[in-house]
User: Which sequence fits this backbone?
């Protein structure tokens, strides 16, 4: 741990870090504007990665993705936005819209 790197993590470990621990860790360390942009992104990933997605939530998730992207563009420099940031948010948007209409009840992923 002398290099301050996390190595040897499995996929589930990374999901837990991003969805559950990252919001707690950045809350007291980063400026409030940065936290306001990143924490909702963690919650969106948490909702999208859930086993069951309520179709009634999809419109809200779609709107949240747009708001988070706008907030990130306001608070982060243009050099932050490489192709991977846009692809991740675009993937979230497509995932939230592609699962619509699959079932009339709850959607299982």
Assistant:
């Amino acid at each position: 741990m002398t290099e301050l790197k996390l190595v040897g993590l499995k996929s589930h470990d990374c999901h837990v870090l991003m969805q559950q621990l990252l919001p707690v860790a950045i809350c007291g360390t980063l400026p409030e504007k940065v936290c306001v942009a990143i924490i909702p992104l963690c919650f969106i990933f948490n909702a999208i990665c859930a086993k069951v997605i309520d179709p009634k939530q999809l419109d809200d998730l779609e709107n949240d993705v747009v708001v988070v992207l706008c907030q990130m563009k306001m608070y982060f420099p243009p050099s932050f936005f490489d192709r991977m940031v846009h692809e991740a948010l675009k993937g979230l948007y497509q995932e939230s819209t592609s699962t619509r209409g699959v079932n009339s009840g709850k959607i299982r992923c």
The CA atoms of residues 99 and 107 lie 8 Å apart. The first helix runs from residue 11 to 27. The radius of gyration is 15 Å.
